[in-house]
Amino acid sequence: MNCNKVRRYFYAFLDGELDVEKNIEVLSHLNMCHACGIRIEKERVIQKRVKETVCKVTAPASLEQKILKSVKGKPKVFDLWFKHFLFRNKVALLSGLAAALLLVVGYFVLHTKLKKEDILYLTESRYHDYLMKRHEPDLHLPDAESVMGRFYSQTGLAATLPGIEENLQLQRSKVVAEYLRQQTNMRISLPGVGEGVQIVGASVLKIKNMSIPVVYYLFDNTPITVAIVCNTNVDFKKMKETMVDKMLVHTGTGYCGACQIVGWKEAGNQYVMISTLKSDKLLKIITKV
Amino acid sequence: MSQKDSLLVHIDALYRSALYLVKNEHNADDLVQETYFKAFKFLENSKEIGNVKAWLFKILMNTFINQYRKDKREPSLADFDTIESFHESISEEISASSITENEAEFKELLDADVKKALEDLPEDFRMVILLSIVEGFSYKEISEMINCPIGTVMSRIYRGRKILKEKLTRYAKKQGYERE
Ligand SMILES: [Zn+2]
Ligand SMILES: [Zn+2]
């Protein structure tokens, strides 16, 4: 190898990325060529200085605390929803809906194969903004405590009255459904949800010329879900049946073509289904047409 | 060590990369927080992760690319970063290589100079430099992390370091004059 050729391999050499043969060639050239020896030494010094400088940065102590606080004691949200939706069948239903309700549960981790213009991808970005408190729902519902407070001051009754939580939840669902109906002309029903989950707001996102209603939930103090309502319909009958963990699972392509439906169950006039987008599970509710 | 602890030991590494990518502490904080948020969420539903550090960096890089990049519509450098052009650019650069660099003394560079040189690099170059020089990931790992062919990674590392060296040479010479 001549000098030019050797220098071409300097960085790969320093990074230990050369195959054995090339590595030997570079080494033997460096042994006999003073000029290249000086050059590679300089590269090594730069490499060392960059590493030293960057490594002087450490994370602020408060960051770890923030992270731990944000994940402390969070239940397995997906399991919780799964239980409520699939097994208890506690889905609040209204008839004759043209819209389908799609509930996105859990968190999409990485969907590198997903096209950036995909609706799910775009909606996930908004979800991110919401989590990072950069996006506020259009419709804000008063938090439970202030509602309870008002209830108490008006009636003198304790907020722990049996049934009051459920009642509040139902009212909130209605308020959100009404708001979304006004905004989009779609008739939407929201499913009943389990304890500790509350609806906190809703928005209508304009994504790719479509109006996508999004419903925000809170579990404890963590925003966990986004509901997307879309007009769609999936042919469940054509799906393949397999048994997974003693459960009958139907597999097929999801509505956007990027996700896979891995299980579904009929509940009244809606299908409750689980699909995956890569490894990320989604829960959707789709109304029968 | 609990699963959470085994993830949190990488917090400094993630933070320093985040800080050099987004260039401000507030966003670096956000970026690292979100990385862990996603990582913990993912672990709730899943099995073991082979290389935890590489996996965390993949989440960090993806989050950065998708959310924090200054202008997402800017065409990626990958578009013209083929292996062919890599070799062409190398031969050009070698024949036109700087005459002055032998005079420079890099050891005396200030941290502030290194920081500035690094921060001035285009994002695509800065990313691979942080991952290779600082964190010591292999080219293959980097290519998986940022979803680029390995040839593109190599070319970015080559060109990024080349720019870095030119800048640092200039700074080092300046330091030298000021001392004299
Ligand atoms: Zn030589
Ligand atoms: Zn889909």
Chains forming the largest contact: A-B, 49 and 62 residues
How far apart are the first and last residues' alpha carbons of chain A, in Å?
A: 71 Å
In whole angstroms, how far apart are the ends of chain B?
Answer: 54 Å
Q: Structural class of chain B, please?
A: mainly alpha
Assembly category: heterodimer
Give a short synopsis of this structure.
The complex is a heterodimer of chains A (289) and B (180). Chain A has 289 residues and is an alpha+beta fold.
Task: Tell me about this structure.
About 15% of the residues of chain A have low confidence. Chain A folds into two domains: 53 residues; 224 residues, no CATH class. Chain A is of the alpha+beta class and 289 residues long. Chain A is built from nine helices and ten strands. Chain A is elongated and about 90 Å long. Chain B is mostly helical and 180 residues long. Chain B has a domain of 71 residues: Winged helix-like DNA-binding domain superfamily/Winged helix DNA-binding domain (Arc Repressor Mutant, subunit A, Orthogonal Bundle). Helices cover 71% and strands 0% of the residues of chain B. Chain B contains nine helices and no strands. Chain B is globular, with a radius of gyration of 18 Å. The interface between A and B is large, with 49 and 62 residues. One zinc ion binds next to helix 1 and helix 4 of chain A.
Question: What topology does this entry show?
Answer:
The complex is a heterodimer of chains A (289) and B (180).
Chain A: H1 3-8, H2 10-14, H3 20-32, H4 34-55, H5 61-71, H6 77-87, E1 100-105, H7 119-131, E2 139-140, H8 144-155, H9 164-184, E3 197-207, E4 210-219, E5 222-230, E6 240-244, E7 247-253, E8 260-267, E9 270-277, E10 280-287
Antiparallel strand pairs in A: 1-5, 2-3, 3-4, 4-5, 6-7, 7-8, 8-9, 9-10
Chain B: H1 3-8, H2 11-22, H3 25-44, H4 52-68, H5 83-95, H6 111-120, H7 123-134, H8 139-145, H9 150-179
Helix pairs in contact in B: 2-3, 2-4, 3-4, 4-8, 5-9, 6-9, 7-9, 8-9
Bound molecules: zinc ion (2 copies).
One zinc ion binds at residues 120, 254-256, 258-259 of chain A.
